[in-house]
Amino acid sequence: MLFIGICGASGSGKSTLADALREKLGEDRCQVLQQDAYYRDHSYLTFEQRVKLNYDEPGIFDHDLLLEDIQQLLNGGGITRKGYNFSEHRRDDKPDEIILPKDVLILEGIHCFYDKRLTEMMFLKLYMQVEADICLLRRIERDIIERGRDIQGIGEQYLNSVKPMFDKHIRNYVHDADVIVAHGGKNARIVDILAGYVQDELSKKSSM
């Protein structure tokens, strides 16, 4: 199995690139995991308290659980699907849904390069480099349409946590990357190049 990490700012196109690669490689050969599914469970807090948490700082994720699941897949075992309800700010796992290992595993998330135990296992590390204003516009559209947020809440979160955590942590992950991807996840040329490279590596493995 080839393990690929895709990191970058919120709204930079990580999910788009991951989905494009999965489509290009074939859904029967490629599995995508979102780091967002591994937010720590704060269901013991009230909704008002959960809203005030900083969802952009590294410690908000359960890195140990994510590492455990990745190792399980790389070792040929299955895992239960983890999930998160963004409207309610709480975990929403799917214990009856089993994810089985495939030839390629892609992990995408704003802090997927944070845990060095994970990055050391990655075959390829991609960093999405997109202008901050474009990322913000994409985030506004996504949060309103997909997550039921309002513009005031999105603005407050951006100023209070998204931008500060990008400046402190996420922008520096570029130094861990093997490849820097410009223009977001809809860059068809880079998708073709990356998919071709991965397919070549899979062919080498199968011929060994």
The tally of helices reads 7
CATH topology: Rossmann fold
What's the total number of strands? 9
In one word, what is the shape?
Answer: globular
| Name of the CATH class | Alpha Beta
Q: Which regions are unreliable across 5 or more consecutive residues at pLDDT < 50?
A: none
**Main sheet strand line-up:** 2-7-1-8-9
Distance between the termini: 14 Å
Helix vs. strand class: alpha/beta
Q: Determine Rg (CA atoms, Å).
A: 17 Å
The percentage helix is 40-55%
Q: What would CATH call the architecture? A: 3-Layer(aba) Sandwich
What kind of sheet is the major sheet? Answer: 5 strands, parallel
Mean pLDDT comes to: 90
Amount of beta strand: 15-25%
Q: H/E series, N to C?
A: EHEHHEEEEEHEHHEH
The CATH superfamily title: P-loop containing nucleotide triphosphate hydrolases
3D architecture notes:
With 208 residues, the chain is α/β, with parallel strands linked by helices. It has one domain: 3-Layer(aba) Sandwich (Rossmann fold), CATH 3.40.50.300. 42% of the residues lie in helices and 20% in strands. It is globular, with a radius of gyration of 17 Å. It is an enzyme of class 2 (transferase).
Q: Gist?
A:
This is Uridine kinase. Helix content is 42%, strand content 20%.
Helix-strand blueprint:
Blueprint (H helix, E strand, L loop, with lengths): L1 E7 L5 H12 L4 E5 L12 H5 L11 H12 L4 E3 L2 E2 L4 E2 L2 E6 L4 E6 L6 H4 L4 E6 L2 H16 L3 H18 L10 E4 L5 H20 L1
Parallel strand pairs: 1-7, 1-8, 2-7, 8-9
Antiparallel strand pairs: 3-6, 4-5
EC number: 2.7.1.48
Protein name: Uridine kinase
Enzyme class: transferase
